[in-house]
Amino acid sequence: MSSTKGKDLPQVSDEEFPEPEDSDANPEEEEEEQQKEIVVIDDELIEELKQAIPKGNPVQLAQAVDVIMGALELKENVIFEEEHKLNPLTEILVPLVSKVYSIYEANPTGKKHQITEKMLADIVQTYESFEKFKGSAELLEAFFETVLITRKFVDKIDISKALTTAVKFGISNPKYSEITNKELQKICDDTTFLPIVFNLRYDEYKNLADKQHTESIERLLPELIAFFTEKGEISKSFVKKLIKNLASRICDDIVKKDKGIISWGTVAEMNFITEFILKTEDQRFVYPYLTELYSFLRNFPTANYLPFQLRAAQNIAQICSKFSKISPLLAWSADSMAIICSLHCKGKGGRFDWDNELVAPQNVNYEYAEEAFDRLSRIIHAQLVEFSENIAFPEYSQFIKRRLEEITINAKNDRLKYRPKALIKTISEQQDALISIKNNLQWKDRKEQIAAWAPAMEEMPTPIKTSAERSKKVEEAIRKANAANRQNNEAVVDATGDRVERVNADNFLD
């Protein structure tokens, strides 16, 4: 085999795109002969090509294409010196594809079009060689830029496959997430590719949630919401389809009874839709979406799926609070308490992993049952706090009070059945306080009564209001103490030496 330095290839004027020379040789024989000649690439050649590419010299463009093909290991006769340091994929790929594509577009017919079309056909083989672009952020950026420049030259299916591979890699690696988001933003400037990018980013978010659970949701969701909300009506159409699709999946699961929808991917989906609605404040989604979330509470057995249902409940609470909607959570929470307080528990057992499990343990112990009760109790307390200063609170809260009283009488687990008494006491005290305030108001009609109510509430600290303020102070103190001790992984304890549990009326999952 013969060998030559790549830089020794002949030079041609900038504007010259020569026709192929006539030859009596068989084309296959010519190609085989070319393959026998080894071209050695060094840093000097890469630098020369880097300087020459903007001039559009066809021979040097073709030479640069060969170098890229060699770097991708798609051209056997192109090899690199052992001591070379420059990577052509980061040094010349993007300027090369940009120049070749600009010539291709500027010449819709003729030999320039034919030659650059052949060059582009070679260059887009990078789509199938993503492994070569995993080494650094610069390599990943070069891959995205190549796809961006050639997006109109190749089929959308190929673009989708290439972007899917790159996005999965970029988003799953935190050190590449910034460059991935930056490049996707560029691609989104071409609105015809928005649906592809939407699906890519959303699917990868859900897939990572299935693997990494809460960690990936908390890490990816803020960035994802920011990306979607700035896209306007196009993103709203995407979310509308998500809500419709979620409804279909819920119906299918209810009919088939396979419960495949109970997954971390669905949790990620709920959190995404909720955050999107809260950010955009688009009330068109509220009632259809709340209906779907409520289906999770009423059509799936609480004894089996309470950990998942608590996450649905948290989303319901956020939506209802934001848009001042009446929440169904009080009734569901009380009914769920009745189920929990009648469970047959088998001893103390181990701790249930509420952070990573969505399905209740098969053998329920008291540790799980008591924690489940406490979480439901916090839902009820949070709902009561929200309406605690409403003039209609005494009447509004009466049904939940009676339901809790029924639990203390009818529940089958003697150890758990009396736990609702603390909530009953809180409701009774708040009812008595508000009735007393109402009775002391001077009013002639309903309008005057309501007008006098707000000033009276400000002057009179009610039991629930006082308790909520105290809980916030305790929670803040615990949060600060935990932050101070987290590095040493120490438990926070109170003055008696007992472990302090975090109490948060606004978050039922803690």
UniProtKB/TrEMBL annotation:
Chain ranges passing through the membrane: none
Gene Ontology BP term (one): ribosomal large subunit biogenesis
Biased composition (Acidic residues): 13-36
Pfam family, one: Noc2
Keyword Nucleus: yes
One Gene Ontology cellular component annotation held by this UniProt entry: nucleolus
Keyword vocabulary terms for this entry: Nucleus
UniProt keyword annotation of S-adenosyl-L-methionine present: no
Superkingdom of the source species: Eukaryota
Region entry Disordered, spans: 1-36
Subcellular location: Nucleus
Annotated family: Belongs to the NOC2 family.
Name of this protein: Uncharacterized protein
